[in-house]
Amino acid sequence: MEHNQTLVLNRNLKSVKNILPDKYRGLGQKELEDRIKEIKDRKNDDIIILGHHYQRKEIIRFSDYVGDSYYLSETAAKKENVHYIIFCGVDFMAESAYILSGSFTTVLHPDTSASCPLANMVDTENVKNAWKEITSIIPSKYIIPIAYINSDSELKAFCGKNQGVICTSSNAVNAMKWGFKKGEKIFFFPDENLGRNTANKLGVDRDRVIIWDPDKPFGGNSKSDVNRASVILWKGFCHVHTWFKPSHIEQMRIKYPNGVIIVHPECYEDVVNKADYDGSTSFIVKYVDEAKDGSTIIIGTEINLIRRLADQYPNKRILPLARSLCPNMWKISLNDLLWTLDYLGEVNKIIVPDEIKENALISLKRMLELK
Which among 107, 15, 128, 24 has a CA at the least distance from the CA of 339? Predict the structure, then answer.
């Protein structure tokens, strides 16, 4: 069925999966590109395409705006009068664009099966259960929930209702600083590594950072652990960035002694500590752009971004720390994009229920105010 495929992005209500019609599967590269270009040129004032840094280069070519989660969220919030936003990324990103964009805008996601495993490591019921247990011994006014943007809209709404905020890897430090101004403890989910590395940057004592494992009674902690903790981290991770190991850095140090190593803060703590720098994808892109010609820069993040940077800066040596692909970002193809454009507004629509959107918008707006 080609038409009227609307995705309701509430994890309990998600009912429609993206099924690309067969007639789009066998199209050649040139035909795909020509047809996409023709539609874009014809409907230029009605459409913007947002492309995350980890997308394939052929998708990036047709993207009007390219960036990390923060930048693309900010862009969506500013495009209140555009008819269609086509978000080439994973599902939580399209959700955020829907929540932040104006009522005039329809948000489309070319492949609705492109989900985020990290975001799927936490669900609202588990968080609510954890919150109930934590607040049974600590008044909720002293605990600030911070959800990484890699989470679904229900969790963003949870933060909105409980004086919390959303963060990206670009502003996690500012989000945690904001949280400590508002309360005494931070409940950070779902990425343990980003939370740990951010707490380290703020100098939080190690014995005041604990892990909450939803598969264990009371998260695997005692009441005294929770009372002592300044930061409570959800046990979750990004499989793309936990691929990198300290041994990768050690090998690259030997092979390229003059190279600079930059990794994403979703990496393990010991990888971040061994690298020269860590930062969001926007930080990485900026560093490469500003580096001198002849520089050797070794990067620990998703391979599509690294390859594109290597192509873009041929006078600099841009190398992957190790090859790590996000198969979910890879799912979106030109075939999906053309289908979405051909049936503009009829397939792959994103809808977040109003009761979720209202509170999620609160936490996302707080995120944008943090910079």
Answer: 24
Alpha carbons 202 and 324: distance in angstroms, whole number: 29
Helix (H/G/I), strand (E/B), else coil: 188: strand
φ, ψ for residue 181, nearest 5 deg:
-75, -30
Short-list 270, 267, 265, 230, CA closest to 246: 270
Tokens of 212: 């909450």
Q: Is the dihedral of CA 40, 41, 45, 46 positive or negative?
A: negative
Q: Is residue 359 within 8 Å of residue 153, measured between CB atoms?
A: no
Q: Let me know if the fold of 5-116+329-353 is the same as that of 119-234.
A: yes
DSSP state of 292: P
Contact between 48 and 84 (Cβ < 8 Å): yes
Q: Would you say how long the chain is, in residues?
A: 371
pLDDT tens digits for 41-99?
Answer: 998 889 999 999 999 999 999 999 999 988 998 999 888 778 999 999 999 999 999 99
Q: What is the pLDDT of residue 14?
A: 42
CATH superfamily of this structure's domain 246-325: NadA-like (3.40.50.10800)
Q: What is the CATH number of domain 5-116+329-353?
A: 3.40.50.10800
Write out residues in the chain with pLDDT < 50, as ranges: 1-16
Strand pairing of 165-167 and 185-189?
unpaired
Cis peptide before 190 (omega within 30 of 0): yes
Q: Return the domain boundaries, the chain.
A: 5-116+329-353, 119-234, 246-325
pLDDT, tens digit (0-9, with 9 covering 90-100), for 303-326:
999 999 999 999 999 999 999 999
Q: Which amino acid is at 338?
A: L
Residue 90's alpha-carbon distances to 119, 202, 292, in angstroms, are 10, 30, 33
Domain 119-234 grouped into CATH 3.40.50.10800: yes
* Cα(68)–Cα(273) distance, integer angstroms: 23
